[in-house]
Amino acid sequence: MLGAVVYWDLEGAYDVYLGSTVPTQGSGGLLECSFAYLTVRDRLPTILTRVIDTIHRNKNKFFEEFGEEGVQAEKRTIGFLSKLRNELLTDKPILVLCDGLEDTDSWNQYLQRQQRLLGERDPVSWFKSPWLYIECYMYRRIQEAIWLNPPISDFDVFNESKTQSFFESQQAVISLCTYLQGFNRNMDDLSETQLMEQFHKLLQVSLWGNRCDLSISAGMENSQKASPIDSLSDLKSFILVDDSNMVWSALTSAQRPGEDGKTTSGRVDIVLDNAGFELVTDLVLANFLVSAGLAREVRFHGKSIPWFVSDVTAHDFQWTIRQTLAANHKWMSKSGVQWQSYVREGVWSYHDHPFWTMPHEYCDMAGDAPDLYATLQGADLILFKGDLNYRKLTGDREWDHMVPFDRALRGFGPAPLCSLRTLKANIQVGLQPGQGENLNTQDPSWMTSGKYAVVQFSSPHREQ
Ligand SMILES: O=P(O)(O)OC[C@H]1O[C@](O)(CO)[C@@H](O)[C@@H]1O
Ligand SMILES: [Mn+2]
Questions:
Q1: Both ends of the chain: CA-CA distance in Å?
Q2: CA 255 to ligand 1 centroid distance, Å
Q3: Which pLDDT score is estimated for 40?
Q4: Alpha carbon distance 249, 234 (integer Å)
């Protein structure tokens, strides 16, 4: 457990934010040696250095595309990012954004809010702010640096890492697609029980796919080598909370008899996390849900800017489907063809919204992004992938491990939802009495190693 740090009164209770203080008297800061502190001190500057290096290595490409103007833009962007790195390392004040994008005002208002909470004596700075805010802000500032420097404003600084991670997982992708096509061919012969077993397997594949993010590894290679299906039984004991039966019930209870006598099923929304292997696991799950008649429509929600190194953007989504389709492997390519036709027919659709790349907790969504909240209300099930989504769902607070998931959501519940997350931050709710203490003794890094996972379900209609 992190030491107790403060502090503001929310819903009548004092909330402790992960490794961070929001002091009222202008003292304190990120709790030294906490996972949050080490992320800001070590991991974020490393990511920034890699970003600078990537832009520098692409100098010739910019020259070929844009001539001397491209080279000048490269230099200016590197200047912006080096300054940003220096601001971070020397705990300088957080600056307002000035790129005039759709979300710029919201970011600047958020900064004012942080300043009000901190008091006027000290400016909000890198080490004196909530971890979630600082981490999100860094990625937004990277985008500002790129955006303010045309003609290279479309450059995705993480694209190389994302594509590399996809190719490094190739064998695992092939085995997963082969598995998918195997039961797609025999779908009609599957009993209800067999269908449910397949569902559990693919939900777990998608869960463990979340191990492959490039933010926890500071952009270093982190791909899936072995066939994920084969390791599921060995991994089972590392799932600390498994509500997958409730997820199954949410899907089956959304099924209704249609006008033509055939059963129609519900809409599933997947709030995506990482590109590369994790995205493939999500597409395989979504394919299964549609072909098994468990969903009539799947909506994918991704990021509108490059985010936390490996998160999916619209380009990554389309690129992954195209790569799968073009693969020199029968079942992989067949999967890609299927996915592309789902997109063309509108059975699958990709969406993004600026709220996903804001630092807000999800309990703020209804007020701060009512359009997105209303869209999500149309789903019969929402799957939230990954660690960052979990942090936002639970407000990134140092909750007692036994606090129910429903309570940690603090009213957020546009539809039945499920978090599929491997643990990579010091936060975990919904555990049994003694479970957290046992884990602390057995494996002190259980919350941050990515070795453990949860499938946590909540329904707005369920008794709290
Ligand atoms: O891709 P995910 O699962 O959201 O993980 C993002 C990572 O970034 C972090 O925010 C820390 O940098 C952790 O929460 C997690 O390790
Ligand atoms: Mn991610």
A1: 26
A2: 34
A3: 85
A4: 25
